[in-house]
Amino acid sequence: GFGFVKYDDELPDFFINPENTLQAMQGDTVRVSTLKPSPTPDRGPEGKVEEILEHAYERIVGTFSLGSEARNMIGELHLSDKKTMNFKVLVSGDGLTPNDGQVVVAEVTRFPDKIHPREIIATVTETLGYKDEPGMDILQIVYSKKVPNEFPQEVLDDALEIPSEVSESEWAGREDITEQTLVTIDGADTKDIDDAVVAWKLDNGNYHLGVHIADVSHYVTEGSSIDAEAYNRGTSVYLTDRVIPMLPRNISNGIASLNPNVVRLAMSAEMEIDPQGNVVNHRLHTSVMKSHARMTYDAVNKILEGDVFVQDEYAKLVPMFKVMGELHEILYNMRKNRGAIEFDAPEAQIIVDEDGKATDIKLRERGTAERMIESFMLAANETVAEHFDKLKVPFLYRIHETPDADRAKSFFEFSKSLGHPVVGDPSKVTPIMLQKLMEDVAGDPAEQMISTMMLRAMKQAKYSPDPVGHFGLGAEYYT
């Protein structure tokens, strides 16, 4: 069939007619020539695939079926990936011979071509189990998406060399904040706890906010095998029934996790915030800290809602949580006044049992505690970004540029057609214009559609060495 080639985040994709695809598969990296220029600004040029530079599906995952009509083939693979499931995959006898019904990993040895446009030949390299085993559906996704789910032995060996406790020598040059009443607030099932917060009211009427992040870089040094593996993974991957960590678990769940009542090393941002939400003073420093409680969003929400039983359980911390609640309201109103756009799209939470089978689907709740931590992290990130810009040193910022006038105009027309006109000039769009629109459509049947189309009209947030600001947050600085 026909296809599209993405070559620029800001420009429409190339259109490729069926006879010009060179049998490239979904996700392949290709070299394209232009056959016809773009007919309109919102439609891309027509192109021809000249060369396949890199195949996206060098490794495939599927269920093995014994026997094949094809000569010299031991069976076939049935793929679960919607992008490839219509291809016929023949399994050669050059690799492993799995049992009928086993889920396997296979290396592609022949890709589709002009003679066999819908056929792939592959060799089995690994068996994962049977398709009805608990968690096998998730494991198939892990392998098909090439998520690294096992650490190289060198990385595991190096991780074992990292101590499980903070030594006295590591306190040197760090500020001791172990007496401050720091707490962590996370989901009940969070394993790697990497941030802690503390707040109190100052005598001058301002607020002290401390945001403290586990100092992972102290243990994962640049250029080490652990650093290289973390760079390769990029992030931890959170799946329905498991987490595939970026770092070995003795680091992510151990020495670099801010577990309660143990000393940990941290990077700290301490801010003084006035009643209008402005950061009037701040300090960034390394520290030695201790979490005084491992709190959950649910527990903190109940405290803020006045649940006397939970308040009694955490009586010593209740005054601080009330101060945190006040500060969150101040920060939220400050962001709203400057035009921050809040997308509160519904999110499903899938509940699974011990066998990995879905038992329920619930609406994921975002209570005051979740929004409060978001407020504190935004304040810290903005403060850090501005700090390094003022120092005039190289730094990586998270930026979100103003939408293009053409896309903004199209969105304004779309929203107006649904009975919700945007007040303002699309060539000079501001965050406040879109924020007011979201307030106007709140609860309306068209809310979700308008929200989705608004997101499509915006540019993607990205990292940049230049602090051009963050449109969606209405922020001058962000990281």
From TrEMBL:
Gene3D superfamilies: Nucleic acid-binding proteins. It comes from the Bacteria. It is found in: Cytoplasm. Residues 174-479 form the RNB domain. Pfam families: CSD2, OB_RNB, RNB. It catalyses: Exonucleolytic cleavage in the 3'- to 5'-direction to yield nucleoside 5'-phosphates. One of its GO terms (biological process) is mRNA catabolic process. InterPro entries: CSD2, NA-bd_OB-fold, RNase_B_OB_dom, RNase_II/R, RNase_II/RNase_R, RNR_Ribonuclease. GO terms for molecular function: exoribonuclease II activity; RNA binding. Keywords: Cytoplasm, Exonuclease, Hydrolase, Nuclease, RNA-binding. GO terms for cellular component: cytosol. Coiled coil: none annotated. Its EC number is 3.1.13.1. This is exoribonuclease II. It comes from Leuconostoc pseudomesenteroides.
